[in-house]
Amino acid sequence: MRGILASSIGVTCAAALALPLAPPAAASDVAAASDVATRTVGTAGVRAAFRLDARAGSRTDVRAEVPGSTQSLPLRPLTQDRATGTVLGLTPRTVRTFSLLGVVWDDPSAHLHGRVQVRTRAVSTGEWTDWRDVETHYTEHGADPDSPEAASGKTRGATAPLWVGESDGVEVRVLPEPDSGEPEDVDPVGTESDEGVSGGEDAGEGGAGEVSTLPAGMRLDLVDPGEAEAGESGEPGESGGSGGSGEGAGGAEPAEEPRTGVLTAAAKAASAANSASAANSALVPLGATQIPSLTAEETREELVALRGTELTEQQQAKKYIGPQPAITTRRGWGADESLRERSFVYTSSVRAAFVHHTASGNNYSCSQAPSLIRGFYRYHTKSLGWRDIGYNFLVDKCGRIYEGRAGGVAKPVKGAHTMGFNSRTTGIAVIGSYGSKNPSSKAVKAVARLTAWKLGLHGMNPKKKTSLTSGGGNLYAKGKKVKMKVISGHRDGFNTSCPGGKLYKKLGSVRSKAAGYQGR
Question: What is the C-alpha separation between 445 and 432, in angstroms, rounded?
C-alpha cells in the first residue's frame, strides 16, 4: 500500500515540476541606517511556489515570502594594549532591525583566541542589554577537511550565532586572550559592563608596531531571519513547493528559463523549493510543512517501503526501529531555498548520531524556533559560506523536531556538523546553550525519539558502538578508524565543549530511551 502511495506521489511530483511559475511580487527596499557602513546580503528574487491541497488534490498559489537579510559591519580598533594586543569592536550605534548576530573572519582555519562580548538594544523597549558573551569556538561544526564543501573557497571562520531577539542597536568588543588550548563551556549570559574597555570612535591611535592576535578581516554580521508566514510556529500545515532529487550529488532539473532576469531568479528559487520538498515525497504529499508521527507498526511498514531491498535477513525478521516522530519540514520553518547549493550530497549510510547544541542562548520562545532556524540557515550559508545549514535536524526546548540540511529526512544526507565525522553520521542540534543549563526533558525525549527512528532506518542499536573513519580533526588524524558510541556528543569526535556539559550528561538517558523506543 505504501509502495503504491509513494508511486502516486512520484507522479504528482513530476506533474508539479511541469507547472508554470507565478511571477514574483516586488520586494520593498529597506533604507540603511545613516550612521553605519553596511554591506547587505539580501535574498535574490522572491520565491514562487504552489500549495498542494492533499485532500482535494487542487493547486493554489502561495503568496510571496518576505526575505531576510544580513548586515556586515567591519570591526575597527578600539584600544591597544602592549601585553594583549588590539581590542577590536564597534561603539554603540543604530542599525537596521536584526535578531541574530555573529562575528566572522576571513580564514576558516584561523582560531579566535579571545573573548567576544556584545550589547544590543531591544526594539520593543528601547533598552540596552548587559554585555553578553558569544561562544567563540564554532569552526569545528563545519565540513570535513579536504571535502568539496570545505575546499570551495567560500568558507569563513566565525563565532557561534547568538540569538538576541528583535533589536535595532548594537555594540561589540573583541578582547584578545592567550590561547588556553582547552575549550570551555560558555553560555551567553549577561556580564558586568566593565566601563572604559570599549573606547571611543578615535580610540586605538598610537601603539604603532603592536601585533594583534585576532584573525584578519573580522566583522560583525547582523542577521534578519525574515518574516514568518501567517500561523507559522512549527505546527502541522499545508503549503506548496515540490520537486525531486537523486542519490550522490543529486538535484532537481532546472525549470524552464523565463524571459526576464527577475523571473529567472524566481524560477531558480522555485525549482530549489520544489526539489527540497520532493526529497520527502516518499513520506508526505508534496509541499507538506509537517511530516506526521506514525505508530510503531506503520513505521515498520514504511521501513520496508523505503529500504526493503537493502534490509538484511536479521532486519527483515525483527525490525528494531522507533516510531517515526513528527518533523517540521524546511517548508514548515520557512527556508529560503535560494540560499543553499541546489544539489544534495549523500553519504552511504547512517551508523551514528552526533548531538550538538547551537550555543545561541536560551532566551527564545518555542514559537520563535522557526525564526532561529532561518537565522542559523542564513548565517551558515551567507556568513560562513557553507552549502546549506550544517545540522541534519534541530530540536527546540518544547521537543519539536525540524528538518535541517535539505535532501530528505529519511535519506543519509551528509551534513556539516562534526568536523572529521560527517560521513556515515547524522547531526542533531538542540537549540540553546547547555554548558550550565539543563536541557528540557521534552528536548531530551525528542532526541531519543528521533535517533530511535533515524538510526533504526539503518539497523543501528543506540546502546552499542560503531566504527567510523576520521576525515581529519584535532582528536583523530585523517584515516584513523575510531570506535564511537552510536549516539555520541560532538566532543567525542572533536576537542570542543559542544554539546555543553549539561546536555552531554543526558546522552546516557537518550541512548536508553532510544533503545526502548526501538523495542530492544
Answer: 16
Other C-beta atoms closer than 10 Å to the C-beta of 256 total 10
What is the grid cell recorded at 434? 547547555
Give the pLDDT band of residue 182 (cuts 50, 70, 90).
low
Is-contact 396 403, C-beta < 8 A? Answer: no
Query: Do the Cβ atoms of 65 and 232 come closer than 8 Å?
Result: no
Q: Residue 128 CA to chain centroid, in angstroms? A: 28
Name the 3-class secondary structure at 100.
Answer: strand
Task: Please give the Cα distance from 378 to 43 (Å, whole number).
Answer: 10
Angle at 453 between CA 452 and CA 456, to 5 degrees: 80
Cα–Cα distance, 408 to 275 (Å, whole number): 10
State the number of CA atoms in the 13 A half-sphere of 369 facing the CB: 28
What pLDDT score does 67 carry?
75
What are the start-end ranges of the E strands in 200-269? 219-224
Q: Which residue, 328, 136, 160, 308, is CA-closest to 231?
A: 328
443: closest CA among 510, 497, 376?
Answer: 510
How many Cα atoms within 13 Å fall on the side-chain side of residue 435?
Answer: 17
DSSP, res 466? E
Q: What is the DSSP letter of 309?
A: G
DSSP symbol at 360: S
Lowest mean per-residue pLDDT among 88-102, 244-258, 291-305, 365-379? 244-258
User: In angstroms, rounded to a whole number, what is the distance separating the alpha carbons of residues 391 and 426?
Assistant: 8
C-alpha–C-alpha distance, residues 67 and 364, integer Å: 21
Residue with cell 488534490: 57
Q: How far apart are CA 407 and CA 330, in angstroms?
A: 10
- β-sheet bridge partners, residue 221: 72, 102
H runs (alpha helix) in 284-407: 296-307, 313-317, 330-333, 369-378
- Give the C-alpha separation, 243 to 15, whole Å: 9
Cα 135 to Cα 360: distance, rounded to the nearest angstrom: 8
Distance CA 424, CA 471 (A): 11
**pLDDT reading at 242 higher than 90:** no
Query: In whole angstroms, what is the distance from residue 360 CA to residue 431 CA?
Result: 7
Among candidates 25, 80, 73, which has minimal Cα distance to 48?
25
Task: List pLDDT tens digits, range 96-115.
Answer: 999 999 999 999 989 898 99
Per DSSP, 410 falls in state T
Sign of CA dihedral 124, 126, 132, 137: positive
**Contact indicator for 258, 67 with CB cutoff of 8 Å:** no
